[in-house]
Structures are given as structure tokens and as C-alpha cells.
């Protein structure tokens, strides 16, 4: 099965990349855009079976995201 | 710690180990800097090594370990040697992480907090003024509290973050070792090169045997290369080991 992992800066934590993009958008004529947050998207192939969600959660917590500054969520998609 | 007792008599050299990760690029500078001190010797440690026998101080040098993939230091913290470094630190061994080495210590949880990208989104490479906030620990006791030193920084992710509770704890335990300051030692917004919380440039753990800092003291150990303000860090370690 496939896992799709979305990692984003935690709420309330400064995201300098998001701020830079937010400031650039009006220069291109896109007015009124706010709340830009830049994160990461990771795709993984997992062995099928029970407990994939639990494994995925551990992987996110231990390596894929840094829980001090990042939130994560994931979707499991059967092949 | 695991070091042989002779290393603490003052007769034998103080032994530094410099960890080489794939992508480290300040390992040679660290090795050279340490080797210039009387009474000290250095050896390289490969990231796959699992023993730190006989060492007094381990240096995690700057660079781009594992290409900085995922997050700076995120992969390096799982290197075989990091298990040994953790044990060494828990036994009271001295560990110093410089720049990428600091990021690795944060990712490994040996120091609290995390690094963001610099507020200005630029790689910052410049000489900065640092105020020594805690001069009563193994890595800084050769400086005076409040002393301003000039040391270069060179990083993209040096914007230190810790939550409010963590910050209060750092302050209460005197774990903030150095801060970015202006020439007169004032902690100002203008003197902050990367957006770091509280102008924090370097912190230690509660037992003050693990020290992480973004500036590069190993690059200013000889006035021939533009400054010698970084010498105090290594002199402090050597003194500390010899006298304990």
C-alpha cells in the first residue's frame, strides 16, 4: 500500500518561507492571500498488512517530521 | 565515562575526537584547531564507529551531513556513532556540536529545541559578536561572563526555536551559553543574524557537558586567519579535563 505524508509547520510557529511567498504574491497581482505555510509531501510504499497506520505514525514521529516544530498527517492508499 | 584514568592526571594529552559524517566539511578545521593546543591531541572518528574509548571530548563538526536531506541533522542522528555519543554524554563526557553538529544534537534530543530556516531566508556568512552568558561551564570558563567575542557564522538553518516553557527552563538553569549581541554586548534585534529566539547562539544541557552552538570557534583559533577569540572554547575544555 501507499502512504501519503503531509508535513507542515506547527500552528503559530513562524514559517519564513511561507512569509516570503505571501509577500511575493501581491507583486504578481494576487491580492488578499494570507496564511501561506510551506511544508513537505512524502510518498512511501509500505508492506500490506495490519498495523500500517501505527508504523506510519512511528515513522513520522521518529524521522519524517520534527514534532517540536512540525505537524504531520498521512493517508494510506491501497494499491 | 570510559576514558582511562591517566587522561585526568594532567600528564597525558587531553584527547579530542572529531566525528566525520558523510558531508561534514569543518572536520579538518576542527582537527587542526585542536591539534595546535599544547596538551591536546585529536583523532578522527568515522560515523560508523561505535566506540569512543579513551576520549575526553567529542566534536560534532559543521557541514552538511547526509546532504542536509529531510532536515539538517535528521539523518545523522541515526548514525551508529550517535549511540556511542549519547552513552558518552550520559556518562558525563564532553560533547560539543558546532553548526551542523548543533543541529544534530537538537535532532538527537541531546539538547532541547529545534532549528528553523533563517528568518531572512538567506545563508548567512559573517563575523558576529557574541556575549558570553555563562562562563562557569566546561566550554567557556576561560572567558568572562558578559565578555563579547567575535566568531564567524555560516549557516542557512540557525533560527533557534523552543517553546515558552522550554525557554524559561533554559534561562532558569543558565543553559543559554552565548547570545548574538552588538559590539557593546547589548542583545538587540539588529544584532540577531537569523531570527533566533532570544538571540540564542549556543546552549548546553542541564549538566553542562553537552554544548551546541551555531558560530564556528574552530575558525578563529589563530590571529593569522583573522582572529583568535574561539581559542577560549578549546582552552576551557583542556583546562576542565586536566583539573577534574
What is the SS-derived class of chain B?
Answer: alpha/beta
Which CATH-level-2 architecture of chain B? Answer: 3-Layer(aba) Sandwich
Strand arrangement in the largest pleated sheet of chain B: 2-1-3-4-11-10-9-6-7
- Give the % helix of chain B: 10-25%
Q: Per DSSP, what share of the residues of chain A sits in E-state strands of 2 or more residues?
A: 25-35%
Query: CATH H-level name of chain B... which superfamily?
Result: Class I glutamine amidotransferase (GATase) domain
- Average pLDDT confidence of chain B is 94
Topology:
The complex is a heterodimer of chains A (79) and B (244).
Chain A: E1 2-9, H1 16-24, E2 40-45, H2 52-64, E3 70-77
Antiparallel strand pairs in A: 1-2, 1-3
Chain B: E1 14-20, H1 27-35, E2 40-46, E3 57-60, H2 80-90, E4 94-98, H3 100-107, E5 114-116, E6 124-132, E7 148-155, E8 159-161, H4 164-172, E9 176-181, E10 200-204, E11 210-213, H5 231-243
Parallel strand pairs in B: 1-2, 1-3, 3-4, 4-11
Antiparallel strand pairs in B: 5-8, 6-7, 6-9, 9-10, 10-11
Tell me what you see in this structure:
The complex is a heterodimer of chains A (79) and B (244). Chain A is of the alpha+beta class. Chain A has a single domain, classed as Phosphoribosylformylglycinamidine synthase subunit PurS (Mth169, Chain: A). Helices cover 28% and strands 28% of the residues of chain A. Chain A has a three-stranded antiparallel beta sheet, with helices on one face. The longest helix of chain A has 13 residues, at 52-64. The radius of gyration of chain A is 16 Å and the shape is elongated. The relative contact order of chain A is 0.35. The model of chain A has no long low-confidence stretch (mean pLDDT 93). Chain B is α/β, with parallel strands linked by helices and 244 residues long. Helices cover 20% and strands 25% of the residues of chain B. In chain B, strand 1, helix 1 (27-35) and strand 2 form a beta-alpha-beta unit. In chain B, 53% of the residues are buried. At the A-B interface, helix 1 of A face loops of B.
